[in-house]
Amino acid sequence: MAETLQTLGEAVRxxxxxxxxxxxxxxxxxxxxxRVRPELLLEAxxxxxxxxxxxxxxxxxxxxxxxxxxxxxxxxxxxxxxxSLNQRIRVIVATDDRTPVxxxxxxxxxxxxxxxxxxxxxGVVFGGQTDLRRLLTDYGFEGHPLRKDFxxxxxxxxxxxETRKQVVYEPVTLAQDFRSFDFLSPxxxxxxxxxxxxxxxxxxxxxxxxxxxx
Length: 214
What we know:
By secondary structure, the protein is an alpha/beta fold. The chain has helices spanning 2-15, 41-50, 111-122; strands at residues 21-27, 31-36, 58-66, 74-82, 87-95, 101-102, 126-127, 156-161, 166-171. It has three helices and nine strands, in the order H-E-E-H-E-E-E-E-H-E-E-E.
């Protein structure tokens, strides 16, 4: 398996312009991962779809990861599937929060949904994508919730205002400062749960049945 994937990776690298592939990895011995330069993404994806030696007809998913400490903090992960050749490949492109990544919706139209989700969750902009509407959050949502620096409470809260008879957005306000409550844990602080007092009774001291008793 690893040798077959290695051969596939070398064939893709040879078919693309020099330097288009930044790195080739085989993860867990069964997954071929290609790291592609963003400016050559469309050329690489078109090759992977149209070349009969690769024939990756379907883009199964586009997801993202966030590494805030890196200059290019976001990684977009494209999972491709070839039904005719029964093989998979993963393409990764790195970018920052300002540089657009070329949209692959012209190659796989279904990618529009995946790119909308990635923009909604991470704020990654896709160049050439004309339908970057929010997909999983509301239209009035602020920020991108899967970024590592996004606060757990969010920026606004939604509630129904009975006086105004409508849903309103308000800044998040905490009723009290965060406190670490020291709850009593029955598995750590207590040796006996209520009702289990007999568990510590010495069985030798327990009354024994009389001889001959049924």
